[in-house]
Amino acid sequence: MSFMLILVINCGSSSVKLALFHHDDPNPVATGMVDCIGTDSISGSYRIGHEPSKEIHCPANGDHAEALDAALTGLRSEPALNNLTVTAVGHRIVHGGQKFSAPVLVDAETLAAIRELAPLAPVHAVPNALGIEAAIRLFPEVPQVAVFDTAFHQTIEPQVYRYAIPEELYRKHRIRRYGFHGTSHAYVAGEAARRLNLELNNCRLLSAHLGNGCSATAILNGESVDTSMGLTPLEGLVMGTRSGNVDPNLHNYLAKEAGLKLEEITDLLNRKSGLTGLSGISNDFRVLTQKFNEGNQAAQLAIEVFCFRLARELAGLTVALKGMPDALIFTGGIGENSPLVRAKTITHLAAFGFQLDPDKNETAGSNSMGIVSSPHGPTAIVVPTNEEFAIARATIALGLP
Ligand code: ADP
After folding, report:
1. 61 in helix, strand or coil?
2. CB 43 within 8 A of CB 36
3. Which atom of ligand 1 is nearest to the CA of 340?
4. Which residues make beta-bridge pairs with 109?
5. Domain map of the chain by residue range?
6. Residue of the nearest CA to atom 12 in ligand 1?
7. Assigned fold of 199-387
8. Distance from the CA of 312 to the center of ligand 1, in angstroms?
């Protein structure tokens, strides 16, 4: 039997994650990951469904194409997948600038445009392009589709996306707010509307994607109308290791008072701040929750700041909804799994009428609807995200004849 599968690739600077989907099944047939690409510690693993994971034999110092090839060789060695035929490939691309407002079929022009966006996404654009090139080499006959994290937010208006800085910086350097996690926000909005029997194109939603990176979005009638991330994914909420919003004068202050260089400040705000910086313990929310429960004051402060800032952002985003939200969606590793964060955030939003249902909140994972609020106010709901499947769906929509 031959399997027609959609391969979804998420290529980072030194890692590649992949997932294989049957056409409309949201549960991946297989997933895989290769890390430390380009070094002699390159390693990887894959798993079929929920079976235990197996090692991928990667060539030392292998590049992205060799890593992908090794992962696929591993998958094809499985009896269940040895007739594996990849029908189309979907790529997660972090930055689409102002050029891409929807997924596109990849051609030479698309690739050049993604590379050209490198100044806006220095960490991601080049590996994203490498992933596409590697996949084209491995599957030259197969349609390849690029799905952009920024695309969903291209509907936001100038009053929302422009910064109050000289206009020429926007014109010459494309400095504006773009927003990220668009694939996730769009996916959970669709899922929430379906579960709650709302018409997606006639409702007001707030979406909080809380993973290692965190962002919140206002979705009016199915379109993004405001979002917390900006030019880069550093703006907005407190995240695992990212600061989110700080006073824009902080760079100047730190340079003068602490003698830090530009790259050191960038590193500090991206990798040493957020929950890690506030707590001095970890960016892992499971660890912080345990410390919180043990009475650790630094962990408690980190979680209080995280939730307060989230609630404040959600309150601000409501302006763009032009009315009270019909539902607030929690998603991402923290949003899906932390009753503590949901309880604190919903409590902060009491002025909007939100009321927690403490029992439902504790069991949101096993409660099929995922509702965690009482029926006396707007709905708060947990919807697991599935960005890979959303990319697979977009790939099917564009890539299959
Ligand atoms: P990424 O942005 O890398 O995709 P995830 O969406 O997987 O991240 O979210 C990772 C975060 O979710 C981590 O902070 C992790 O600790 C947290 N998380 C995962 N499971 C739980 C849990 N059971 N309880 C609380 N936090 C959790």
Report:
1. coil
2. yes
3. 25
4. none
5. 3-148, 199-387
6. 333
7. Nucleotidyltransferase; domain 5 (3.30.420)
8. 22
Residue among 334, 342, 391 to mutate when testing ligand 1 (max atoms within 8 A of CB): 334
Tens of pLDDT, residues 113-150: 998 998 888 778 888 998 999 899 888 999 999 999 99
Rounded Cα–Cα distance for residues 389 and 7 (Å):
10
Predicted model pTM: 0.94
What residues pair up with 220 in beta bridges, in sequence order? 204, 223
* Ligand 1 pocket mutation pick from 212, 241, 288, 361 by most atoms within 8 angstroms of CB: 212
Which of 170-179, 212-221, 358-367 is the least confident region? 358-367
More confident residue, 139 or 330: 330
Which residues line ligand 1 at a C-beta cut-off of 6 Å? 211-213, 240, 284-286, 289, 332-334, 337-338
Topology of domain 3-148, per CATH?
Answer: Nucleotidyltransferase; domain 5 (3.30.420)
Residues with catalytic function: 149
The pLDDT tens digits of the residues spanning 157-175 come to: 999 999 999 999 999 999 9
Distance 184 CA to ligand 1 centre (A): 15
**Backbone phi, psi, residue 221, to 5°:** 50, 40
Please give the backbone phi and psi of residue 327, each rounded to the nearest 5 degrees, phi first. -155, 150
